[in-house]
């Protein structure tokens, strides 16, 4: 009990110091931005209110053949939730999920993004979208205090699958607490038509207690700096893509996985056991031809990939980070359940 109280007191003191430091620096930054940052008009095109989609779901393809003025609002939140059975963590997130919602726009769109920071937050937050051309990817103008709101507009000029994340000092701390997501900028020509699309994002969590320790676990800055995570998981929680959360498909369907790596530190060796990727858009780029017949693809921290394959045999396929101890010892494992008739010409057990 004394040890727990001492840890709690240290955590409270450290959090207070960090918070006060954050608030001073962010107030100065916001003042400078108000005095000197340009606030240009939104781009041309019809106005469309975009509703982001939580994982593992993906919004439908963009059907427009012309650019639009897309209005998007995101809210940063701090909340306590399970990271594993019997273990809780205080997540920081865009919205109510880790990763944050999937955003889907079209090349040429002008996005008017409003960032709100929930009044119950203790820290300022911001957003850096890797799809943005501009200072800090938007982070410079979106340093947002609790209860505050900021906004900026930007033009989506480069098609691809991009990571977004918080970029408020200390940046690794914000990312390690769950502040990341994916945005897809579709090319002017349509993407291949798929039967099912899913959103999967890997992330690391660094806790004071070891993997599997029960109760509320505090964030460990020391482990973050040492790059020694206790959890490496898909979609914010150990087991999030297992059991009732498993992805579902049918034999013969074409599957697209939009896979991101929030990091903040590790490179992912993404693999689906029992499948070969028909096509991989390496590092989320849509300007080059895809690679074909790929077994495992590397996804850097702060990067993404689009993997496509057709499921031809029923059964359960296992999604892993093939740095394999992360899958079986730290949680980077998920399931794709495929229903349908057997295909003995492709695969069958033998006695």
List keywords for this structure.
disordered N terminus, globular, alpha/beta, 4 helices, single chain, 21 strands, six-stranded mixed β-sheet, 15% helix, 351 residues
Number of strands: 21
What is the percent of helical residues?
A: 10-25%
Helix and strand sequence: HEEEEEEEEHEEEHEEEEEEEEEHE
Main structural class: alpha/beta
Radius of gyration from the CA trace? Answer: 21 Å
Compact summary:
With 351 residues, the protein is of the alpha/beta class. The protein has helices at 2-36, 171-176, 221-226, 325-330, and strands at 47-50, 69-84, 87-94, 103-106, 110-117, 128-129, 149-155, 160-165, 180-186, 196-205, 215-217, 231-234, 247-250, 254-263, 268-273, 277-281, 291-294, 296-299, 303-310, 315-321, 333-339.
Describe what this molecule looks like in 3D.
Strands 1, 2, 3, 5, 7 and 11 form a six-stranded mixed β-sheet that branches. Strands 12-10-14-19-16-17 form a six-stranded mixed β-sheet. Strands 13-21-20-15-18 form a five-stranded mixed β-sheet. The N and C termini lie far apart (58 Å). Helix content is 15%, strand content 38%. The protein is of the alpha/beta class and 351 residues long. The protein has four helices and 21 strands. The N terminus is likely disordered. A hairpin with a 2-residue loop joins strand 2 and strand 3.
Topology readout:
Blueprint: H1 2-36, E1 47-50, E2 69-84, E3 87-94, E4 103-106, E5 110-117, E6 128-129, E7 149-155, E8 160-165, H2 171-176, E9 180-186, E10 196-205, E11 215-217, H3 221-226, E12 231-234, E13 247-250, E14 254-263, E15 268-273, E16 277-281, E17 291-294, E18 296-299, E19 303-310, E20 315-321, H4 325-330, E21 333-339
Parallel strand pairs: 1-2, 2-5, 3-11, 4-9, 10-14, 13-21
Antiparallel strand pairs: 2-3, 5-7, 6-8, 8-9, 10-12, 14-19, 15-18, 15-20, 16-17, 16-19, 20-21
